Amino acid sequence: MALLTPYWGLDGILILSSLMVAAYLFVTRKFNYWSKRGVKELPPTPFVGNFMDCLLSRTAPSEFFRDLYEHGKDLPFLGFYIFDKPSLLIRDPELVKHVLVKDFEYFADRYASVDEKNDRLGYANVFMMKNPGWKSLRAKFSPIFTSVKLKKMFELMLVIADDLGRYLDSIHLEGEGKVIEFKDICANFTTDMIGSTAFGLKVDSLANPKAPFREYGRKIFDYDFHRNMEFLTIFFFPGLVKYFKPKFFGKKATNFFRSLFWDVIEQRADSGQKRNDLIDWLIEMREKYKNDESLEHYKFDGDDLISQAAIFFAGGFETSSTTMSFTLYKLAMNPDVQKTLRAEIHDALAKTDGKITYDMIMTLPYLDMVISETLRKYPALGFLDRVTLADYKVPNSDLVLEKGTPIFISMMGLHYDPRYFPNPEKFDPLRFTEEAKSSRTNFVYFPFGEGPHICIGMRLGLMQSKLGVVQVLKDYEVTPCEKTKTPVVLDPKGLTTTALGGLYLNIRKTTTAAG
């Protein structure tokens, strides 16, 4: 005899149907969360909420949030769902200011999370660490990026810039020139630069693109299915981290960098050599804070120490190479802008007998405007994530955000909003004259974030990107190549802003050399 009816088959159908109904009711139980609070929400789909396109790698997260931003036109915020998790997109610049600066204590942590025990390299660094430890850690690392230390790093960077010049000379770009995939070249360049300035290593990826240091750097941002799922879990489904145990840097890269960086630290400590780089700083802090009890659950040793080297490397080479390659792409597409910038570079070099200097790189006005406009269109990470640490009443509203609510801000949405940047698809460096910047609404442009969580390595990243662009443009001209889609299509599996299929450009040596 069957359980419910005289027929086993019918029992099976009834039980399965009941389970499906129960599952449906469970995953949709929160789907009126925002409407009940008077907030407009995007209609969710059962089981996936509004996140289907990202989950299926149809849309890059940065573009997903830009689409949400545009969907919420004229609204200060918009409710949506990641699976069944009610999340909020902030659109109003004044509210952005409250979240990132004025009421920072309510939003001091990222929503993104990694397993504190099983991925110490991913957790314990200054980018991902939670409060209260993050605040103390950040304060201890800020002195690495003073002007004095950056100037010392710049001298090491010039050696790598010369390597880039020699590499371009070696592939014979006279006459009609050649087609080159620039994202990889720029990443080789910035990897060599970070290897030298931060770790005292001669990486030589420009000469050998398959150097181990470069290969494992690629694995961090190798947006195959597995890495895409790891990043999606960390940034958007952190509740699943303890079950799936994703690695922020990926398993293979984590093991490689743990071994490499620890060897470098130990060798430097044993030799007593000083290079004024990140390794020196880590050694100094290991000694200075070995008995420091202000950082509970954090030690300046082992994986906790190595995690700072790993995030410094990953963030340093990827964001700078993205900015540099997209800048060269936009210059190729806008020859008048390229001509104006090259003239500025040549004028500056004429005053220094052809020598690139720190002051030149940091003060060329048109170069700064060009880089700023590139970062408007292609910020390395096109969104910001936060989570409410306590119940928070939204200013000028009856809405109270419950503790644990994920908050997102679309950098790309604000950067392409025609209210703040008219004709936003146009590449126009003049948006960043001093007059234009002073007349623009605050908190609509922040490619490095804003407030206490602003990117700690912002100045170093800009310096690397600018130096790379100057090194190329002073002797070479870049023009479009049909292998690169126009407009650029972003890799839908990429957490960071990455061109699908690469950035191919034609490059040739110019007849007029600088200096």
3D structure, described in words:
There is one protein chain. The protein is an alpha+beta fold and 515 residues long. It is 50% helix and 8% strand. The protein has helices at 8-27, 33-36, 52-55, 61-71, 93-102, 120-123, 133-141, 147-170, 182-199, 212-220, 225-236, 241-244, 251-271, 278-288, 302-333, 335-350, 358-363, 365-377, 411-415, 434-439, 458-473, and strands at 77-82, 85-90, 178-181, 383-387, 392-393, 400-401, 406-410, 476-480, 504-509. Strands 1-2-7-4 form a four-stranded mixed beta sheet. A three-stranded antiparallel beta sheet has the order 3-9-8. α9 packs antiparallel against α15 and α15 packs parallel to α21 (458-473).
SSE topology sketch:
Blueprint: H1 8-27, H2 33-36, H3 52-55, H4 61-71, E1 77-82, E2 85-90, H5 93-102, H6 120-123, H7 133-141, H8 147-170, E3 178-181, H9 182-199, H10 212-220, H11 225-236, H12 241-244, H13 251-271, H14 278-288, H15 302-333, H16 335-350, H17 358-363, H18 365-377, E4 383-387, E5 392-393, E6 400-401, E7 406-410, H19 411-415, H20 434-439, H21 458-473, E8 476-480, E9 504-509
Helix pairs in contact: 8-9, 8-21, 9-15, 10-13, 13-14, 13-15, 15-18, 15-21
